[in-house]
Design goal:
heterodimer, A: alpha+beta, eight-stranded mixed sheet, three-stranded mixed sheet, 4 helices, 18% helix, 28% strand, B: alpha+beta, six-stranded mixed sheet, 6 strands, 52% helix
């Protein structure tokens, strides 16, 4: 039996159930799962995973295998307009999908040619995607997902895993001797670079002094950003990104192909 | 659909009120036709609530199901309700006049309907159903109507239940 629930404001409400599956089961065997790493960009067949998910603060009791849908209220027709996410429980899997305005299908006239041709009026419908934004499997206590940004409505607090640097952290970072802003303000640094500062800036600050020096020397050689008085002259977001990439040691030389390269996606592998 | 269904459940739950009144006042529209068999009508009156209940139980099968997977506490509530129900009888016996009766009966239906936890129908007991208050694992208190003899939360078997309203469920 599959069950469908919806999240309205902070509350989950019961929608329906049916004997057959609502969407296709998530097949762990056909995907590659990677421990969540903000600096990694997923390929199509890759999913991030969070193991021991129930240990996290942002775990929700809806994921409990003992969760009873009798505990929540039945949804009211007026609630659908405010639905922000849905949950689908089937075969021991808990699927979650973020509902955005684009998934509402209001008043569409469709020619259905699956049998004898007929005109179908679609009114007040919500599209359920084939691929869920997150899937929790209780048997191995693991959450699978692709984009963390879509999950903050469903698991409040999960966005902390890939947070933006606070203004204070940005200020501390740009105050480093090797950074000189020219034409951009610390206040106006964009979201993506803030996320990189949160991630790479933290890694840098945990290094020993000698490693820091070695890293900056490496960055100056590789980043391709103008240097003046021993400091990077940051004139744009791109300059800042290049410096951050260099501080993450993403520039390398592929000796057999004889190419200088930059890695736009990195993760730690163990072998 | 759900509205009519709940109204019918409420009606069958308080139908004894109507029956007691009809018998008490010896209201018998077919007295002349039936002659010495007029008492048959009173038997029909008594059987009627049982029929309503059988119909409401079959309607319950059409309700949307939900699941209860774990309960942390469980107590029977048959006795609490029976006391309330007996009060209906005494009120019905003491009502005088048709207008008073319909007003009181109408109000009883209205309040039973909106109070939402009062789908208690003693005839369910006759058919072997019991009334329980349970707390689910999410610590939500619900009324569960079930034929099972439930005693121990640990041995509670998870299963599908029908939603009469957000607080009342029936295992059928």
């Amino acid at each position: 039996m599959s069950e469908l629930i919806g999240k309205i404001n902070a509350e989950f409400k019961y929608i329906l159930n049916q004997q057959v599956n609502i969407i296709e089961d998530f097949d762990v065997a056909t995907i590659e799962s990677i421990d969540f790493t903000p600096s990694h960009k997923l390929d199509e067949d890759e999913w991030f995973k969070l193991s021991n998910f129930s240990q996290n603060d942002f775990y929700i009791n809806v994921c409990n295998s003992t969760y009873s849908t009798a505990s929540i209220n039945q949804i009211d027709n007026n609630d659908y307009r405010e639905i922000s996410a849905i949950g689908i429980f089937q075969n021991g899997q808990k699927h979650f999908q973020r509902i955005t305005p684009s998934l509402f299908v209001n008043r569409k006239t469709i020619l259905d040619y699956s049998g004898a041709p007929q005109i179908v009026e679609h009114r007040k419908q919500i599209e359920i995607k084939n691929e869920s934004d997150a899937v929790y499997i209780a048997s191995n206590d693991t959450l699978y997902f692709k984009t963390i940004g879509k999950l903050k409505q469903i698991f409040p607090g999960i966005e902390e895993l890939h947070r933006e640097a606070t203004q204070e952290e940005v200020d501390t970072f740009v105050d480093n001797d090797f950074i000189k802003l020219d034409g951009i303000e610390a206040l106006s640094i964009g979201v993506l670079n803030r996320k990189r500062i949160a991630d790479i800036g933290l890694k840098y600050s945990n290094l020993s002094d000698s490693k820091k020096n070695a890293l900056i020397a490496y960055a100056k050689e590789k980043a391709g950003v103008e240097i003046e008085d021993d400091s990077f002259i940051i004139k744009s977001e791109t300059d800042l990104k290049n410096v951050l990439y260099a501080m993450d040691q993403r520039y390398y030389y592929a000796d057999i192909y004889e190419e200088n390269r930059v890695a736009s996606s990195v993760r730690v592998v163990s072998n | 659909m759900n509205f009519i269904l709940r109204l019918f459940l409420t009606f069958s739950a308080v139908s004894f009120f109507l029956i007691v009144f009809l018998i008490q006042n010896e209201i018998n529209p077919f007295e002349d036709q039936l002659g010495e068999y007029a008492w048959l009508i009173y038997i029909a009156y008594v059987i009627a609530p049982f029929l309503f209940t059988i119909i409401s139980l079959s309607i319950c099968k059409l309700l949307t199901p939900s699941t209860i997977n774990k309960v942390i506490s469980l107590e029977t509530s048959n006795n609490d309700f029976l006391a309330n129900y007996l009060a209906f009888f005494f009120v019905a016996l003491s009502v005088e006049g048709l207008i008073t009766f319909w007003v009181v009966f109408g109000m009883t239906i209205l309040f039973t309907f909106v109070s939402r936890v009062s789908y208690f129908n003693p005839i369910f007991l006759v058919f072997g159903y019991n009334f329980y208050y349970i707390h689910t694992d999410e610590n939500v208190k619900l009324m569960l109507i079930s034929r099972k003899k439930l005693k121990n939360p640990q041995t509670f078997q998870s299963g599908s239940v029908k939603r009469i309203n957000d607080y009342t469920f029936i295992e059928i």
